[in-house]
Amino acid sequence: MSPTNPRSPRPGAPPHGWADALLALLGLVLPVTCVGCGAPDRAVCPHCRAALAAEPQRRRLVAGVRLDAAFAYRDTVRALVLELKLRGRTDLVPVLAPRFGALVDRALADVPGALLVRVPPSRTSARRRGFDPVVLLLRRAQGAGPAVRARRRSCRAPRGALRRVRPPTPATGLPGPTGHRAHGQKERTALERVEATVGTLRAAHVTGRDVVVVDDVVTTGVTMAEAVRAVRAAGGRVVRCVALAEVEE
Ligand SMILES: [Zn+2]
């Protein structure tokens, strides 16, 4: 029996009916090779797992706030994240979750009473995927014991704490950011990226609260910065940002 056969969930794996159904479906097409190096029979082979464990964690500032990232977004990590997000390889969640969860837990331990707020995925990507990778990662990273789990529960932000809104129509003169939708984010100038992002998020229920903002991948940082702006605009204070991976600048 293949250890990655999703029809045979590991003992102790949490029962999530829909996730199991999804995995069963994926099992029909899943390759049984390492995502990192292509070695047969593993989702991620021991060699690649060891290499991941040796990766340095990342830290930078976003809008004046410390961002902790579990990994640099490159090589095996990039392949894992793309397989998870684009191909629904939720069997890779256990590989990525522990370090991400540890950073989130450290942030919540450093700032007692902070709210944990997720940068909402774009509506189209959320609809296309049918699952939220950040939610899966946080749900999985539960090795830390009942006290940490209880703290996480108490830190859960109310629904809609951060949501996407239609961006404001740009002032006259300059071409509006919506005119650039056909371009990938990388093709935009830095200014265009910021212009296109400001006002796209709105926060609620965070007034007077300390907030830890989480996201999966931080690329340019403009989306995370917009989350920080939105929380501040709603009267909250962002004390830490945490990402699964960040793109080196
Ligand atoms: Zn490998």
Automatic annotation (TrEMBL):
Region described as Disordered: 163-186
Ranges for domain Phosphoribosyltransferase: 201-246
Keywords (A to Z) from UniProt: Glycosyltransferase, Transferase
InterPro entries: ComF/GntX_DNA_util-trans, PRTase-like, PRTase_dom
Family: Belongs to the ComF/GntX family.
Gene Ontology molecular function terms on file: glycosyltransferase activity
Name this protein carries in UniProt: Phosphoribosyltransferase family protein
Organism (species): Curtobacterium subtropicum
Classification via PANTHER family: DNA UTILIZATION PROTEIN YHGH
